[in-house]
Write a structure and sequence with these properties.
Elements lengths: L30 H11 L8 H14 L4 E2 L16 E6 L5 H10 L6 E6 L4 H11 L6 E5 L5 H12 L9 E7 L5 H13 L15 E8 L3 H14 E5 L1 E3 L10 E3 L9 E8 L12 H5 L15 H8 L10
Helix pairs in contact: 2-3, 6-7
Organism: Coniophora puteana (strain RWD-64-598)
GO cellular component, one term: cytosol
GO molecular function: S-adenosylmethionine-dependent methyltransferase activity
């Protein structure tokens, strides 16, 4: 792990001024607030672009879940008798804009809970922003979770998940918004995702059906970022979220990549789950080995998965995406 991942050498970033929802202007997530947060918290103080795709996915899952494959929620919030309780656990929450939306618009009263996490030194930013943007009655918790830190993950399970008194079966949605960027952080990020989908978070592979990882991702440098997906795909199956287009007089409805902005945007939303059998694989202690595929598929050889590269070659828009 780099010494201070939020303040890399020659850091020069400005607030994101392309907010798709004008209601965020002037609040904890507007340009002025980001300016001050960047000065104090570096990268964590900026709202990054892929967050807006994540928010759009959440919004569409509430308003028209039948148009998405898969939607975030199995049933609408107004059908609580059918929907399982959900723990939304976000990694690298940063400013808290995604956690705020989850707490205010997606989670259902006392039925669900939201856990926002980041480095210990970033948690004060989360505390400040979420206190300002969420009501006190919102089921919201803030905890430190440094990527790769197993103790932090175990503390979250002990302090929050073990104590959660909702009826079984409940579901765990792990939320990752614009986290795939620095090569030095990719090994620790993958390690944390493995931690959060291993005991004590699951007791057997039967629990895998109740845990999803939702990742919003913006391509910035394929040579630097592809190694993450190559290693991630060994441990997790994943596919892009699809949206059903409306039928017209000249064309029937069809499924295409979910992309609320321009269709040529290099931003995607993936949904992932642990691969069968992976609970018995040995996780190597060194990040370099983990990123090289050591331990995956039960062998010590170096290997990789080609799901991401295949999706890129298919253009992520073909109807053949349904095969993933």
């Amino acid at each position: 792990m780099v010494a201070n991942p939020n303040f890399p050498e020659n850091l020069s970033i400005k607030p994101n001024t392309t907010l798709r929802d004008a209601s965020h202007e002037g609040d904890s997530f507007g340009a002025a607030a980001q300016e001050g947060a960047i000065q104090k918290y570096g990268i964590a103080g900026r709202v990054w672009e892929a967050a807006y795709n994540m928010l759009a996915y959440f919004g569409e899952s509430i308003s028209a879940p039948e148009q998405l494959d898969p939607p975030l929620l199995e049933h609408r919030n107004d059908d609580d008798d059918r929907r399982s309780p959900i723990i939304f656990l976000e990694l690298g929450s940063g400013t808290g804009i995604v956690a705020s939306y989850l707490a205010n618009h997606v989670s259902s009263g006392d039925r669900d809970t939201v856990i926002a996490t980041d480095l210990p030194e970033v948690c004060p930013l989360l505390e400040s922003n979420l206190r300002a943007s969420c009501g006190r009655d919102r089921p919201l918790h803030i905890r430190p979770l440094s990527w790769g830190d197993h103790k932090h993950a175990l503390n979250i399970h002990t302090e929050l998940i073990e104590q959660w008194d909702r009826p079984q079966p409940w579901k765990l949605k792990i939320i990752c918004s614009d986290l795939v960027y620095f090569p030095q952080l990719l090994g620790p990020l993958l390690r944390s995702l493995i931690h959060l989908t291993s005991p004590p978070f699951v007791s057997s592979e039967a629990d895998y059906e109740n845990i999803d990882i939702v990742i919003s991702y913006k391509i910035r440098s394929l040579p630097k970022e592809t190694p993450f997906w190559t290693a991630f795909g060994l441990w997790f199956s994943f596919a892009p979220v699809l949206v059903r287009s409306k039928a017209s007089e000249t064309a029937p409805a069809s499924w295409t990549r979910f992309c609320p902005g321009q269709q040529d945007d290099d931003m995607f939303v993936f949904v992932a789950s642990r691969r069968p059998g992976s609970l018995n694989w040995t996780v190597p202690p060194m990040d370099q080995d983990l990123m090289s595929g050591v331990g995956a598929k039960g062998s010590q050889s170096r290997k990789g998965d080609d799901t991401f590269e295949t999706l890129l070659m298919m253009g992520l828009d073909s109807g053949d995406l349904a095969m993933f």
